[in-house]
């Protein structure tokens, strides 16, 4: 069977989702999980976009050992140099150079003639090939480009050294038949086309990204691009887990193999959702909470007789096991550490220590500590290196006819002292957030607040996501607890820590944020 490789852009196009902002540590965590999933090419970011992006690409490039790690670059020498700088220490470095080719982009965005586009594309690929063993070239807005011009671009970049040629449907405009036709056209007409891998990259503006990607596979592409959970610019990118499961479930039809480790799908989806703060809709294909739930009596009866009556995929195939009781309040640190490593987490000892304290608190309050709960605890702690304030206590006075009042006690690790403040608010959460503002002295604006439950039942963990803005920095915070008000306080402090950490960096203070002064 033919082999199709997966190019994941969760950390680049996915991170372009409005409001998503991953730090380097989170990007590395996701990248390592994508590697466990078996992703072949991983786009770590856009090195030239900012020093922070460059640093994140560098860290991902050094952490990932198997997959090829690429940085996006415009077709200009400066961007290619930045990508080179970022990936100097990477095990398998690559670059993804792009230039718009469509008449609309040539006229309104680039103000360039066809000949100028051809020259710029060729020069960029030639330079990129000097530095990188793996060069992908993308004809941005390829879906709306004249087919014969796509052929001309291809015939310039292939001899210049492109290894992969990508035709993105940048604006999600094409139908599956039209998109597949582009690849058939290129394969028939372009001289040297056999020297490159053709790649599909689709956006979901009309809800056709996955269908278009599958049509491209039928037309013979050897690489597909997308993001986990379909996150990305505007309506998002192709959801890679959906393509993977379509290919596996309908192998009889597509006749291709991917080599992916499908059992890692659920975990990858969960991690991306938590670290980006983008919840997965319940009815989402493959990874939604209801994707394997059967509600109607007739369906349940069929399922009991034989699961194939209403289920075309088994939940275990994507790594959704029946809920297990994993640890309880009598479990020791050793068992806790073993469980985390069995779940694939490689964490430093100090992190395990602080997580163990949180686990014990949780086990006291919650009878059944499930794998999902542990995932939430661990993922609440990514980015914990910037910890400046920690929540000690939160108390609330609430009545439906009185003004809610909160008092919070927070430990300030810089000054090594506990601080206490109280505040009123127009609701309990508002009062807590105002009290935290007073304690920390940070001026921040709450841009978003989301709440979700981690598992089921009365004692389920509540998980809160907040988005805070300070000047032109926006960060996310996450908090979990069996109590949603405590989870709210934790999420808010997590976000404040990230903002305060950035401020310390920007002011160039010599004292590390957590070492006291
Ligand atoms: O959608 C798009 O065209 C892109 C390019 C940068 C490949 O993301
Ligand atoms: Zn894109």
TrEMBL record:
Protein name per Swiss-Prot or TrEMBL? 2-isopropylmalate synthase
The record's Gene Ontology biological-process terms are: L-leucine biosynthetic process
Q: Where does Mn(2+) bind?
A: 13, 201, 203, 237
Q: What is its EC number?
A: 2.3.3.13
Q: Which family does it belong to?
A: Belongs to the alpha-IPM synthase/homocitrate synthase family. LeuA type 1 subfamily.
In terms of domain of life, where is this protein from? Bacteria
Task: Give the Gene3D superfamilies listed for this entry.
Answer: 1.10.238.260, 3.30.160.270, Aldolase class I
Keywords carried by this UniProt record: Amino-acid biosynthesis, Branched-chain amino acid biosynthesis, Cytoplasm, Leucine biosynthesis, Manganese, Metal-binding, Transferase
Cofactor(s) the protein requires to work: Mn(2+)
